[in-house]
Specification:
The protein contains 5 helices and 10 strands, in the order βββααααβββββββα. By secondary structure, it is of the alpha+beta class. It has a 4-stranded antiparallel β-sheet, with helices on one face. Strands 2-5-8-9 form a 4-stranded mixed β-sheet, with no helix packed on it. Strands 6-7 form a two-stranded antiparallel ribbon. The longest helix has 18 residues, at 194-211. The chain starts with a strand and ends with a helix.
Length: 213
C-alpha cells in the first residue's frame, strides 16, 4: 500500500508568532513504520559521512532558525533547535540516532535542511492545531526529558493542549511502530524564503514514501 498524503487537521498560526514562524505542514496515512530497514540504514550511513566531511550546506536556514529563537527570547546556544542539536551530534562523531524508520527519515531531513521538525502520531491529536507561544505554566512530558516547559516558547497545540515545539516533542504524540497516520510540522522561520521550506517538504514526502510504505 502506498503512503497517502492526507488533508490533516486544520493548522492555524497565532497572531503572536505569525511574523516569526511560517510552518510547512503535511499529514500522511497508510504508513508502515518499522524498527529499521537496510536501505534506510545505508542512506543514513552515507549521510553521516558527508556531513562530517563538508556539513549539510544549509547555513542560511541555520542562521534563520537561531534568529527565530532569539525573537521569542530564547538563546539558541543554550536551548538548541532540534535540527542544530542533530548536526552538532553528527559533527562531533556521535552516531546519528535511530528510533524507527519514520522518525529516522524526519531526523535526516531536519539535519539536512537545518530546519526543526515536529512529528506526531495523528491518532493522538485532537481537533484543530495551532502554532503559538506557550503560556506560563504550560508543559508536557517529553520523549527524552521528564518535563518540557513551554512558557514563552514556540509550541504546537491541539484541543488537549501543547504537544510539540522546535526543540523537544511530547510523549503523548510520539511516533511508534504502531503509527499508521502522522503529522509533520516544519518550524520554518518567516524570514527564510518559502522555497527553502517547500524544498524540505518535498524531500520529506519523497523519503517517507520510499522508506515508510
Amino acid at each position: 500500500m502506498p503512503v497517502i498524503v492526507e488533508p490533516g487537521p486544520d493548522l492555524q498560526v497565532g497572531a503572536d508568532v505569525s511574523a516569526i514562524v511560517r510552518p510547512a505542514v503535511c499529514a500522511f496515512g497508510g504508513l508502515v513504520v518499522r524498527e529499521a530497514s537496510a536501505a534506510l540504514e545505508a542512506a543514513l550511513a552515507a549521510m553521516q559521512g558527508q556531513v562530517r566531511q563538508c556539513g549539510p550546506g544549509a547555513e542560511e536556514a541555520l542562521a534563520a532558525v537561531r534568529t527565530m529563537y532569539r525573537r521569542v527570547g530564547l538563546d539558541p546556544t543554550k536551548t538548541r533547535p532540534s535540527s542544530e542539536a542533530l548536526l552538532r551530534r553528527v559533527r562531533r562523531g556521535d552516531r546519528f540516532p535511530r528510533v524507527n524508520t519514520l522518525v529516522d527519515v524526519i531526523n535526516w531531513c531536519s539535519l539536512e535542511h537545518q530546519l526543526p521538525y515536529g512529528l506526531y502520531d495523528l491518532a493522538a491529536v485532537e481537533g484543530a492545531v495551532m502554532v503559538r507561544l506557550g503560556r506560563e505554566g504550560e508543559e508536557y512530558a517529553g520523549i527524552r526529558k521528564d518535563v518540557v516547559h513551554l512558557g514563552g516558547r514556540l509550541t504546537v497545540a491541539d484541543a488537549r493542549g501543547p504537544f510539540g515545539n522546535p526543540t523537544a516533542d511530547s510523549w503523548r504524540t510520539r511516533v511508534t511502530t504502531a503509527t499508521t497516520r502522522a503529522l509533520v510540522v516544519i518550524f520554518a522561520p518567516a524570514a527564510l524564503p518559502a522555497a527553502a521550506a517547500n524544498q524540505a517538504l518535498g524531500r520529506t514526502l519523497s523519503r517517507v514514501a520510499e522508506h515508510c510504505a
